TrEMBL record:
It comes from the Eukaryota. Its cofactor is FAD. This is FAD-binding PCMH-type domain-containing protein. Keywords: FAD, Flavoprotein, Oxidoreductase. Residues 39-210 form the FAD-binding PCMH-type domain. Belongs to the oxygen-dependent FAD-linked oxidoreductase family. It comes from Oidiodendron maius (strain Zn). It holds the Pfam family FAD_binding_4. GO terms for molecular function: FAD binding; oxidoreductase activity.
Amino acid sequence: MPLIDRAVIEKLKSTLPNLHVLTPDSVDYKKSLERSMRNTEKPAGIVVFPTSTKDVASLVSFGQDNSLDIAVRGGGHSASGASSTDGGMCIDLCKMQAVSVDTGTMHVTVQGGALWRDVYLATERFGVALVGGICGNVGVGGSALVGGYGWLTGAHGLAVDNIVEAEIVLADGSIVAASSSKNPDLYWAFRGAGPCFGIATSIVFQGYKQGFVWHGDLIFPPSALTAVAEFMNYLLRVSKGESSAILMMGMLPGMADPALVVQVYYDGTESKAKEFFAPLFKLRPMGDSTKMKSFAGTTGGGDDLPPGLGEVTSGGIMVPMDSVFLESLLKDYLAFVKLVPDASETIIAYETHPTYGILLHAQTETAFPNRGTFGNVIISARYTKEETAVACKEWCRAMHDKVHKEFVRRKMVDNVDEVTKTAVGEYINYDGLGENPERLYGVNYKKLVILKKIYDPQNVFNKCVDLLPRSDNAVVQQMN
Ligand SMILES: Cc1cc2nc3c(=O)[nH]c(=O)nc-3n(C[C@H](O)[C@H](O)[C@H](O)COP(=O)(O)OP(=O)(O)OC[C@H]3O[C@@H](n4cnc5c(N)ncnc54)[C@H](O)[C@@H]3O)c2cc1C
């Protein structure tokens, strides 16, 4: 680990005397490096905790002036280690988590370091919810600036579709606003590739009126997959967002065998929900935790995962889902966890949010490049021993390629609409394999590169996706 010169640290402390700073010899330093997956942690040279936009701007300028590698930490859930730096300066936004609600416009203003659970808890006091992550510990910044799928996606699209304005610290340390009327090109890029362009210190989202919802897990044996998939296809056909579900194959704590967990969501009364989900209840679930709850009560989906090692990748699963293909993935999953017992906590999850809200926008309306009539498949291999990493990586790669091949095949054989035709078939926020940026951003890539050269020509923000083509990166490195 390259150490940051003591003199540089002292200079920073005198520039920002009230700033909380951790160095490798500080008591809380190790804790500050923790991420949701241990293999994405790196030993920062210094970890700093700004409390204001001005602090963030000063830190970015300081980092540039002193040639420090910069990482920005929101909720620490990046699959690729994008919020960690080996020897550089980690700007941890955890002291910037304020949330406020304007009940007139229903605008929700969130500081860049907030986590989704805190946001939902703050907004539900006003009977308001917004499109955001399902896991409460996920950071707003990291998820909402790259996409942001949640229970309200079916009705209102992605978190990026609901960003009204953002306050951004750019690579040169300047503070700018981005909205449809202020820096509209940056506003376009920030909604899908935000972390590649700057640090959002504050984001204004459109919120929506929200009451209690019905939500929970229904558990089935793997043999129920085809019947469950049939119901999911029905849901995807008829729902405009009032109902949604996530289907997961995995091993539950305390269970000897893998199971199917269907996390269900219904925006309405329990009796209406049970009527809608009756076909699933007819399959006689082995477990049922569904009940009415507040919107903030729906967060989960990974909150209680024990810290461990993990490899993540994703793909798109075309609607209607082909149960033969799903069965073949289930077979792959069962074979893998049998072959690699250390990876028994591996999961495959299908986010079958209705596509209605996502398709209200064109593929090029924001930088987000993955709209279409399909859901995400998340392939998450979790393990405990470092020596299992290679097997997990290889399996994730093989599963990724298999899912992508099927996605491309379905695009060709189905008569897909114009939006789906241009979709990349992968949610960037689930890419732990470091895919090529051009493939990840598809039709929006060229425009992003042009804007990147305007807003961050030195490629300071290179960790989420390293946007610049390899040849441009070589030039930047020479300049540095
Ligand atoms: C258990 C689990 C559940 C998940 N559930 C969902 C879900 O329901 N919906 C969904 O859409 N995604 C979900 N994700 C994926 C999630 O969106 C990504 O992992 C995302 O990167 C997490 O953001 P973070 O802030 O927590 O992570 P971090 O690792 O802190 O940051 C990720 C990237 O965002 C950048 N960043 C963070 N904050 C800011 C900011 N304010 N300004 C600029 N850049 C910033 C970081 O620099 C880094 O490049 C989930 C992931 C996990 C592990």
